[in-house]
Design goal:
By secondary structure, the chain is an alpha+beta fold. The chain is built from one helix and five strands, in the order H-E-E-E-E-E. The radius of gyration is 36 Å and the shape is rod-shaped.
Length: 164
């Protein structure tokens, strides 16, 4: 049976799609796979960034612990000191424990800034015009080291009230 262009197509013959639906389905699946891989890549990069931020936070908190140690020795002894100290348990930090120490990048990490009289409440003048209380100011620079080589540095100025 031959068909001419003017002859209507009988119902028994399928319409001519030529595999277009299959091609469209394969392209759609390929597009969805690419979107899935892009989402996985974004999640893995987010996890890396979160890990780096966590290491920086650990280094910062180690430096903060060093400043707290210096403040403790400042109030008990009168002069600050920062010993090199490792923090935490080795099982919690398998890639290296956080630690703190004086900042090795400066020449004078613990620097006495001088003495000033303590104003207010009538406590600043004793017999002979000398101050009864004085503030001894100190500049303390501490470095905190976190696992993975992350470093944080803190610079603080504090004082201790001392009686003459």
């Amino acid at each position: 049976m031959t068909l001419s262009p003017t002859t209507p197509r009988p119902q028994s013959l399928p319409p001519r799609e030529g595999g277009f639906a299959l091609l469209l389905t394969v392209l759609l699946l390929l597009l969805l796979a690419l979107l899935g891989f892009a989402a996985l890549d974004a999640v893995s990069k987010d996890q890396q960034v979160a890990g780096f931020q966590n290491q920086r936070a650990i280094a910062f908190f180690a430096a903060e612990a060093g400043v707290a140690k210096a403040m403790e020795t400042l109030t008990t002894v009168g002069t600050p000191s920062v010993p090199t100290t490792t923090l935490g348990d080795g099982t919690i930090f398998p890639f290296g424990q956080p630690s703190f120490r004086v900042d090795p990048t400066v020449t004078d990490p613990i620097d006495g800034l001088g003495v000033a009289s303590y104003p207010g409440m009538g406590l600043n003048i004793g017999q002979g015009g000398t101050p009864v209380y004085q503030l001894n100011y100190w500049r303390i620079r501490v470095q905190g080291d976190g696992p993975g080589g992350s470093v944080a540095r803190l610079d603080t100025v504090s004082g201790v009230l001392a009686a003459n």
